[in-house]
């Protein structure tokens, strides 16, 4: 499966090295504000100050604050797509379905860790924008497809009558649980240190079916 098209906005790359450096600083400042859950309240002037830049430079390079927001979400989603794509060929290094599932869920948790602000921004944007929601759906489809490829050597251990459908559905359920855990900071009474074990059990139990 080819990489999904996650393009939300395109900003011309500055010709001058100084402007390129300023753009990177603006993106870094925006990412920090997102991570701290303060992006929505921050003004353009505050973002420029954090980036050690000027309001005029901000508008010249980005146009408006919404463009910066889309660039940050686009970059996060692309990083997630690239990270999960790298799992395609790693299933063969696992001994069985349980190890393959743990490989997947550990990688998903690694990507989500520390991303509360950006996940919240993704969810809010998806609730308001149909085009953005379509990109999220493309990303989720890509993630579930790579999971099927990763677990392909162990499909005979999946007891669901439609193994690939089960992997796809199970991965979507795991992502939903991780969204809740990341945004709210909790998943029932589950302690953070137990998250990896329980998320892996959730997916493995679904794929193996009732005993």
Radius of gyration: 19 Å
Q: Which sheet architecture does the biggest sheet show?
A: none
Number of helices, where a helix is a run of at least 4 consecutive DSSP H or I residues = 9
Q: In percent terms, what proportion of residues is strand?
A: under 5%
Instruction: Report the helical percentage.
Output: 55-70%
Class computed from helices, strands and strand pairing? mainly alpha
Q: List low-confidence stretches.
A: none
N-end to C-end Cα span: 33 Å
Q: What is the general shape?
A: elongated
Number of beta strands: 0
CATH topology of the largest domain: Tetracycline Repressor, domain 2
Give the topology string: H per helix, E per strand: HHHHHHHHH
Q: Using the coordinates above, name the CATH class of the largest domain.
A: Mainly Alpha
Integer tally of domains: 2
Q: Which architecture name of the largest domain does CATH use?
A: Orthogonal Bundle
Oligomer: single chain
Mean pLDDT: 91
Keywords: DNA-binding, Transcription, Transcription regulation
Protein name: TetR/AcrR family transcriptional regulator
Domain HTH tetR-type: 20-80
Pfam family, one: TetR_N
Explained architecture:
It contains 9 helices and no strands. It is an all-alpha fold. It folds into 2 domains: 17-63, Arc Repressor Mutant, subunit A; 72-208, Tetracycline Repressor, domain 2 (Orthogonal Bundle), CATH 1.10.357. The model has no long low-confidence stretch (mean pLDDT 91).
